[in-house]
Sequence to fold (501 residues):
Amino acid sequence: MTAASPPYPACPVPFNMARHVLTAGTPDPDKTALSLLHPDTSEDWTFAALTAAVRGTATGLLGAGLTPGDRVLLRLGNTVDFPLAYLGALAAGLVPVPTAAALTAGEVAHIIKGLNPALILHDPDVPCPDDPRILPLDVVRRFRALPATPWHMGDPARLGYIVYTSGTAGKPSAVMHAHRAIWARGMMFDGWYGLRPDDRVLHAGAFNWTYTLGTGLMDPWTQGATALIPAPGTAPGDLPARLKTHDATIFAAAPGVYRQMLKDRGKLDLPHLRHGLSAGEKLAEPVRTAWEAATGTAIYEAYGMSECSTFISASPDTPARDGALGSAQPGRRISLRKDGAEVAVDTPGTIAVHRSDPGLMLGYLDDPAQTAARFDGDWFLTGDIGSRDADGQITYLGRDDDMMNAGGFRVSPLEVEAALLPFDDLTAVAAAEVEIKPGASVIAAFYTSAAPLDADALHRYAETKLARYKQPRLYVHLPQLPTGANGKVQRRALAPLYKAS
Fold:
């Protein structure tokens, strides 16, 4: 039976994503919307200041000659400049395109070629090839003081923003989302967060990570809550002190951050914390158990992807049971499918989201064939396998492709392999995700050559070709790569080879 709940209310018309995010803060303009947490102090932004900076940025971007619908590539660092530019572009009806700061200039060049942005907002500390469309960060910052531009209102289904994810073809896929995607995130407020206007949400990620942008910034602001972001360079071991000092009520992080926070610690004194949130990759049960013992609070996990954010989760009202991820969020239509049909209870199937979900992508940029390939009738196929019990609890069983997970980022093995193959004396290479200890996995490159190669040299070479999160952490020499009868590399056989060794 398809997991469904009463339909979610339709998105208002006309609509603007940035306006929706900032409206809840209007009645209390002096309330703190954002605190950037330094060791001994904080940099605070009120809702009034935040809204003024966003709308001033919109004015400046339009004044730079852009028109609604133009694409704006963001090459910005882990600073408040990132969300201000993102929301400013949306406020003006432009299409912001956030990208990971860790990408190399070569990787960004490929994106620029396919995207053809009208403007590139560039922090000089972030890699980016020279381009006449670059607008320097110091100019963008001056936009904040400009008069407010009117919100660009329109059809909530119009293109709002584009995000990139590694695709199975070995190249980044540009995912198009509508303005209404922010409206759909309201299904997470009760279905995952238990989010309230008086909450103080601390997200451990960087400003320029889409997980932080949504869960750590835009969603709290949409509720009129306060977002807390640790200053760049804050170590996981310092986060408990930040949580306590700044009265955080909800904590969000990737599983690896929880694991590092708990290392060599006993009890954590977090008197205001209600619970934690986890997404990006599967949370290991030993980490969950250790956190509950250390803090007396639960971690609620969510499952999603770039094409639809999160849509299955546990929550304070509906906790997960027996290792399950949780349930379909209220308002979501979720199906587990095989061979074009819904599978039975307790039977593995591909997790799918109905085409009608307002948070589902509009499609892949300039690639209708790739878009069509992801659908089974009216169902978007995630490529991940799960099973559902009679109560609607969904358990994650793994991926049905070779995609790897690196700290919450999905990485294609083809992209890693293509980058490494030109290395001198390397004759063949295949990448796979391997577990190095319970709950901790890394990307490994398995290669063939006449003799084992210098691992340090391979690391240095990868640094010039791949963003850090895509770079293999292990290099394993094999006499030959495992292949099937058709000669194709069997990547799923690599992790067992590593484990056996």
Summary: The longest helix spans residues 47-63.
